[in-house]
Specification:
307 residues, mainly beta, Complement Module, domain 1, three-stranded antiparallel β-sheet, 26 strands, elongated, VWF_dom, glycoprotein, vWF_C/EGF_Fibrillin, signal
C-alpha cells in the first residue's frame, strides 16, 4: 500500500556473491559454508535510516558460517581425496602405499602366500595355515615348504625327521631332529595304521607306517569340485571369502561393513552398502543434492546430502 516500504528478501553476502538462505557450498581449502538467515521483527528496521544502506541490511539479516569439511570414511583403507575433492573415497583401497582398484586381488610385499582382496575400501587378507611339526611335502603353491637342519652322523648326512639304524645293530633306531641324532632301543610300538600301510624298512626291527600323501587341494562336494591349495573364492555371498588350506580344509571369513549413513544404497553383487553414491529412501534412489517431496508429508521437501 502507499507509504509502506518493502524490505529485500533475506540473503547472505560472502566474497562479493549473494547466497540464498539455506544454501551450502564448499570454499577453497575444504571449508563447508552455509547461509543462515534470521528474519528480524518488523519494528527492527525503520522505513528510512540515514546510516543504513541496503547491503548492510542484508548482512544484518543473513550470516555465513564456515567450518572445515568433516569427512566420515566408512572403510579401513580409503583412497586419498581425488583432485578437487576434500574427503577420501572408498571406491578403491590404499594398501602399503599402493592404490588398488575395487575387487583387485593381490599379495602383500612381505606375505608368504597371503592373498588379499580390496572390497569397498576394505582390505581382507587370508593366509594358508601350515601343519605343525616336521616339514610336509611342498604344496603346489610352495606355501609351506621349509628347510630344517640336516644331521651328520658317522660320515653320513640325514634329512630332518629321517630314521635309520646303526651299522651291525638293526634294532637300534636313530632319528634326526633339528640337526641332532637321537638313538634308542625299544620294543616295537603299536601302529595305528591299517595293515596295508605298514612296511619294514631295510635294517630295521619294527615295521612303520607309510606317510600319508600330502593333500593337493580341497574337495567341496561329492561332485568332485576341487580347489588347489591357496585358491581364494567366494561361495556365493559377496561378503564371504574362502581359501583352501594346505591340509585340505577350507577357511572362510566375512567382511564386516561399516554403515555410517541412514540411507545407504545397496548395489546387487556388492558386499557393503554405498554411502557416497546417493540416498536410498522409500524404495527410490536419489543422487547427491537432489530434492524431492516427502512420501509421508506432501508439504515437506527433502534433499539427499552425501557426507
Amino acid at each position: 500500500s502507499p507509504g509502506t516500504s518493502i524490505l529485500p528478501s533475506p540473503r547472505c553476502w560472502h566474497r562479493g556473491l549473494s547466497r540464498e538462505p539455506g544454501t551450502r557450498w564448499t570454499e577453497p581449502g575444504c571449508r563447508s559454508c552455509t547461509c543462515q538467515v534470521r528474519i528480524p521483527p518488523s519494528h527492527a528496521f525503520p522505513r528510512h535510516h540515514p546510516d543504513l544502506d541496503e547491503p548492510r541490511v542484508c548482512r544484518q539479516e543473513g550470516r555465513v558460517l564456515c567450518d572445515a569439511v568433516s569427512c566420515s570414511t566408512p572403510c579401513s583403507h580409503p583412497l586419498p581425496a581425488p583432485a578437487g575433492g576434500c574427503c577420501p573415497t572408498c571406491t578403491g583401497c590404499l594398501h602399503e602405499g599402493v592404490a588398488r582398484a575395487e575387487g583387485d586381488v593381490f599379495s602383500p610385499s612381505d606375505g608368504n602366500c597371503t592373498v588379499c582382496v580390496c572390497l569397498a575400501g576394505n582390505v581382507s587378507c587370508l593366509s594358508p595355515e601350515c601343519p605343525p611339526g616336521s616339514c610336509p611335502s611342498p604344496s603346489p603353491s610352495d606355501c609351506c615348504s621349509c628347510h630344517p637342519a640336516k644331521c651328520s652322523f658317522q660320515g653320513r648326512t640325514y634329512a630332518h625327521g629321517a630314521q635309520f639304524s646303526l651299522d651291525g645293530d638293526g634294532c637300534t633306531t636313530c632319528v634326526c631332529q633339528g640337526g641332532e641324532v637321537e638313538c634308542s632301543f625299544a620294543p616295537c610300538p603299536i601302529l595305528d595304521c591299517p595293515q596295508h600301510q605298514r612296511h619294514l624298512r631295510p635294517g630295521q626291527c619294527c615295521s612303520s607306517c607309510r606317510d600319508p600323501p600330502a593333500p593337493t587341494g580341497c574337495f567341496l562336494d561329492d561332485n568332485g569340485v576341487q580347489f588347489p591349495v591357496g585358491q581364494l573364492w567366494s561361495p556365493g555371498d559377496p561378503c564371504e571369502l574362502c581359501i583352501c588350506q594346505a591340509d585340505g580344509s577350507v577357511s572362510c571369513r566375512r567382511t564386516e561393513c561399516l554403515e555410517t549413513c541412514p540411507y545407504p544404497i545397496r548395489i546387487p553383487g556388492q558386499c557393503c552398502p554405498d554411502c557416497s553414491a546417493g540416498c536410498a529412501y522409500m524404495g527410490r534412489v536419489f543422487s547427491n543434492n537432489e530434492t524431492f517431496p516427502s512420501e509421508l508429508d506432501p508439504c515437506l521437501s527433502c534433499i539427499c546430502l552425501v557426507r
